[in-house]
Each structure stands twice: as C-alpha cells, then as structure tokens.
Amino acid sequence: MIGLVDANNFYVSCERVFNPALEGKPVGVMSNNDGCVIARSAEMKAMEISMGTPAYQLEGLRRRGVIHLLSSNYELYGDMSARLAQLLRDTCPEVAPYSIDEMFIYLDGLSDTQCQALGTALRRRIRRYLGLPVCIGLAPTHTLAKLANHLAKKQPHYAGVCLLHGESATTQAVLKQLPVSDVWGVGRRLAERLAVSGIRTAWDLREHDPKRLRKRFSVVLARTALELRGTPCLELNAVEQPRQRIMTSRSFGKTTGVKEELHAALRRHAQRSAEKLRQQGSLARAVLLFLNTNRHRKDQPQLSPSTMIPLEAPTDDTRAILEAVREGLDQMYRPGFQFMKAGVMLLDLVDAQQYQLSLLQPTTKAHPHLMKAVDEINQKMGQGTLRFGMTDADAPWQLRCEHRSRRYTTCWDELMEAGTHPGAIAAARVKREQQRLAGGKRLAKARANGFTHHCHQDQQR
Predict the structure, then answer these.
(1) In this predicted structure, what is the pLDDT of residue 347?
(2) Helix 259-279 and helix 368-381: axis angle, to 10°?
C-alpha cells in the first residue's frame, strides 16, 4: 500500500503554527518581491481571490484588515518540510518526498485496517508535534493515492484519511465523475487531445487500451491508465531522479546596473546551486549565466545577455564555479543597462561516484572535505552562515519582503519570544543588550587590570 501525505495550504499553515492569531482569517502568501498571491487559506479562497492575483490589487483589503498578506518565508517552509519528512521516517519504512508539502510513504505488508489506523495516527501525530494539518490518501498505486488524498481533503466524512482500491465501487464512481484533466500527470493540452479521442473522464482513460495509448500518446500515459486500475507502474525512485541541470535565479528588489552588485547576486546564486549539486552527488562540466532587464519598461534600453563557461574538469567545488561566474560576468556585462534578474545554471551534470578521471584532462584543486564542512555548518547553523564573499543586506538585488514573518526555526536572532505584552518583549531585549554591553566593559576592564598587574610584576623583577 502507498500513501500520500499532503499538508493543507502548507505555506499558510506554517505561518499559523507560529501565529495562531491568523487561524480562521483570510491569509495569503505572496511570491518573490511581494508580486502576487501564490498560497491562500480556505477563507481567502471563499472570497474568490484567485491564485496569481497581483498583490497591489489587494492592498486596499490588506490595509483595512480584511485580509492578511505575508511575504514568502521559504527558509521557514523548507525547515518545516524537513521536519515533516523526518517525522514520517521515524514511523514509516520508506519515505519519498515529492514536493515541499507532499510525501509518499510505502507501507508494504500492512493490511487495510492497519494502514487506515496508521494513517489516522500519523495525522494526529503531525498535528500534535508540528502543528500542521495534513490529509492522507492510501491506495495500491501512486496515481490512486493522489486521488484518495484529494477525496480526503474535499469530503469531510473521510476525516482526513481515505483508502481506495482499484476495483472498489467507490473508486469506479469517483473515476466516472472525475475529468481526465484532473488526473495526476495529465495537463490541459493533453486533456484536449484525449477529448478528441473520446477520453473525457478518468474512467474513460482507465478503460482505454494501454497499447493504443502508448502508440498514440506516450508510455507514461499508458502507465497512468494501468495505475488507475490498481496496477503499480511507477518505481520508488521515479520521483527522486537526479536533475540534469540545476538553476538558481531571482528577480531583484530594485533594478541595478552596478557590476559589483550584479557580481554579488550571481555569486550568491552560484553558491546555492553548488550546494544543490553536492546534495544530489553530481559534478558540473559547465556554468551558464544570464541577466535580464525589465521588459515591461519600454522607456529603458533592453538587454538579456547570457554566456556559458566550460569548467576545466567536472567539479562540485564552489570556488571553481565562482571563478567561472567572475569570468562570465566580465564577458556579458555592458554598462548603461538596469538589470532586474540574474541566474546561474549548472549544466552537463555527471554522477560524482561513477565519473572517471582522464589522464588527458586537467585536475581541479578540489577540497571535498572543505566543501563538506561548509555544507554541514550551514545545514546545522542556517543557510548562509558560511559563504564566499560578503553580501550587503540592503543591496538592490536582495528580495523585497516587507511583510515576512520571522524565521522561527532556523535563525537565532528570530526565535519566538514569550511575554505578556509586546512592551515586555521590547524591555527584555533592551535588558539583554545592556547586560551584553556591561559584560563587555567588565571583560575589557579585567584585561586591562591584568595587563597592568603583569607590567608591575615585571618592573619589580
């Protein structure tokens, strides 16, 4: 049996864990630079505010307190996702994360009754230890588990846990009413092509000949049809395949044409890409860089340069990648343009374990132990604790996040504070700062006295 654990309204739920005052209120989370709404609470959905609505259109509602709009806090969301995965690993034999808020669990050897009981217990445990509301779908295949999870969310009588079988009457009734476009892995364009062939519902897809589906469409769609019948066709590692390229890019909070600031942005993206590269155990052979101006500003000159820098040898060393970034920026930078986005992409990736060095290829001065130490410290103490080069928190390329909540679980300076009144919290901060300054003065005085005492002893001798 396969289960899909999906956190409900994940971004909003993470915010509510640390700010219970948001419970029951319309809450939305905005994209990078507070551009548009990318996550909505059930209350905001009931107001018919659609996904992708520009934030400026909702500014009036936010100012009047009708809705709450928060900046994206990806560091908090990522840490909560990691905690959810660890909690599942402590209970389930195998866990395969599919996205930041969805994770497959594999319950081989358990009966239906045991799976149902485990799903209910997991849901309660996640709510108790993490504060996250989740729904769990159980089925013999990944595709049916996705459907079961959907039913667990939409139909209250399942109490958040739904179990489906391929041949059950409930499954058949649901598939006959479900549009084929709602099947996992079937997009809008594919649904239009299927409709021409008379396949309009999930049941039509399930009953279609897999051989004809494979011939007319793809082997993936044929496997999806078999999965709807209850025949497993997706392997465990199908959702964990290493990526063929790794890209990190961000839009700037403000446009900039200063080369040093562009270099700082690219340097940061390159370090993050190198971390991802090492996490999946790969090496990169080339680095692609690009810059973009604001194409909506017709009054400004437009330029979108890009360049690819081949590396001397496949590497995952951040320093070699940063050297390629510096070289690439020198090639593509042109003064007189205001850029609003930068990105770094690592290309031509190879498996670090299977790659063989060539006698004709130069070797890089890689220090894997150094990179490992940097990654371990950043993982333990927070992303960016150790980094190559200084960064300015007020740089124009930094993301605009005026309404971001604290990073409660990953930043020492933003831990949750308890107090009966906001004034008590502020007073506690002032007191701690005064104690710190007083301690520094006492230490300096003690050092000075010790130095004078030693000098006096030397004079007596």
Answers:
(1) 87
(2) 100
Domain 165-241 CATH superfamily: 5' to 3' exonuclease, C-terminal subdomain (1.10.150.20)
pLDDT in tens, 196-249: 888 899 898 898 888 888 888 888 889 988 998 888 887 655 445 667 888 888
Most distant CA atoms of the chain, gap in Å:
105
pTM of structure: 0.71
Distance CA(438)–CA(217), nearest Å, equals: 74
The residues pairing with 2 across neighbouring beta strands, listed in sequence order, are 106, 139
Q: What would the DSSP string read from start to end of 290-335?
A: EEEE-TT-TTS-----EEEEEEEEEE--HHHHHHHHHHHHHHH--T
Please list, in sequence order, all residues whose beta carbon lies within 8 angstroms of the beta carbon of residue 228, skipping any fewer than 6 positions away: 141, 143, 144, 166, 175, 183, 202, 205, 206
Residues with Cβ within 8 Å of 386's Cβ and at least 6 positions away in sequence, in order, are 374, 377, 378
pLDDT in tens, 91-111: 888 888 888 899 999 988 888
Q: HSE, CB side, 13 Å, CA atoms: give it for residue 204.
A: 15
Q: Of 131, 117, 141, 48, nearest to 87 (Cα)?
A: 131
Task: Give the containing element (helix H, strand E) for 268.
Answer: helix 259-279
CATH superfamily to which 243-439 belongs: DNA polymerase, Y-family, little finger domain (3.30.1490.100)
Residue 243's contacts (CB-CB under 8 Å, 6 or more residues apart) are 280, 349
Structure tokens at 250: 């961000």
CA atoms within 13 A on the CB side of 368: 8
CATH 3.30.1490.100 residue ranges in the chain?
243-439
Report which of 335, 344, 388 is spatially closest to residue 246, judged by C-alpha positions: 344
Residue type, 125: R
Q: Which amino acid is at 66?
A: V
Other beta carbons within 10 angstroms of residue 196's beta carbon come to 7
> CATH topology for 1-137+154-164?
Alpha-Beta Plaits (3.30.70)
Question: Structure tokens of 178?
Answer: 């479900």
